[in-house]
Amino acid sequence: MATMQARQEQKRIDSCDVVVVGAGLVGARVAARLAREGFDTAVLEAQSVAGGATGRSAGMVLTGLSGHYNWAVGAYGRQKAREVWMLTIEGRVRLVETAKRLGMDIENTGSLALAVEEAETEALEESAALLLEDGFDVHFDRDDPLGRGFGAALHWPDDVTVDAAALTQATLAASNVTVHTGTEVYNLEPERDGVRVWAQDRTVLCGGVVLAVNGYAPLLNSYFADKISPTRSLILTTDPLDTVVLDHPCCADYGYEYCRQLPDRRLLLGGWRRPNTSGQGNDREIGLRDGVHDGLARFAVRHFPEVEIHAAARRSGTMGFTPDGLPLVGSLPDLPQVYFAVGLGGRGLAWAFVAADRLVELMLHDTDPGVLSAARLG
What is the pLDDT along the chain (378 residues), one digit of tens a residue? Predict the structure, then answer.
């Protein structure tokens, strides 16, 4: 009888003003802002705080998108491409301001975009010329500044690195927000003027919901099926090296690979590929083993031959990409009390604060999210 009563108490019905689904950096920022505005806010997280893409990132806050600027100019047009790059700088500034206010360490490392082939060298050179014309502070070096077999480098002097998980935890800790970890959300239903949130061991009745689940969005609503592509990523972390081999975090191969040496001299190697679409085999096994892992192994052998990665610690994650590479901010057409900021792609730390703040402005003041508006995808 006692066990049955305990289970009944666990599956209780709670209520609050807003439920934020996802305790990554976006969810933490949204929850903190809503709490500051006086809303009774709760966060439901399937894993642990920063247990998803935020905690599995490399901590690199990089300007722009994974694709080079010349590609963005061709895809979006000159004005929109510049706006997108400026927004990621704005996101970095807000992240740094928040981290300093919370007493978090920020490393002002700058970053390098590195070419692995002649075509990418030309793309970087063209991008550098366009960026300089558009007022960005960059430096192009046709020689390899690392002496490790790269073709060229584009230097961003103001990029930073941060412990993204610690920043997320500190953001939530400083806010009057209830956080329930290990609480997976299964379904959302309209309930009078609000929403009923069905989750593990609890049901919550609330006035509104925020989905900050990035690549997991299609699991919660079919609206995201053709708008968010879940994409596997993999990070390998070596034992501490004897020497410092990298002064700057780097991305290479059009953003598909990246590397960073941590303060304790461990080398972090990361990468991602589009999901397996062949229909053959398990996406996790094929995508990680044959795509990302083998690509990282080749990258390491070519550019860091002294590093042994067979014994490196591994962690995988799921990122979310939109068809045009920009985050998606809006509300569900069939359930307008459910808002979302998802699809942050491979530069989630630079986008997190911009996407979160535009979402809050949409919720509170019906402010158009601009280039991040979900309306652009229909």
Answer: 344 334 444 456 799 999 999 999 999 999 999 999 999 999 999 999 999 989 889 999 999 998 999 999 999 999 999 999 999 999 999 999 999 999 999 999 999 999 999 999 999 999 999 999 999 999 999 999 999 999 999 999 999 999 999 999 999 999 989 999 999 999 999 998 899 999 999 999 999 999 999 999 999 999 999 999 999 899 999 999 999 999 999 999 999 999 999 999 999 999 986 443 333 333 433 334 457 888 888 999 999 998 888 778 998 889 999 999 999 999 999 999 999 999 999 999 999 999 999 999 999 999 999 999 999 998
CB of 260 within 8 A of CB of 268? yes
Q: What's 108-161+229-319's CATH class?
A: alpha beta
- Using CA atoms, how far residue 377 sits from 32, 112, 311, 325, 332, in Å, is 28, 32, 43, 11, 13
* Residues 100, 38: Cα–Cα separation, whole Å: 24
Tokens of 344: 């942050």
- The domain segmentation of the chain, as residue ranges, is 2-56+166-227+324-377, 108-161+229-319
Residues present in the chain in total: 378
What is the assigned CATH class of domain 2-56+166-227+324-377? alpha beta
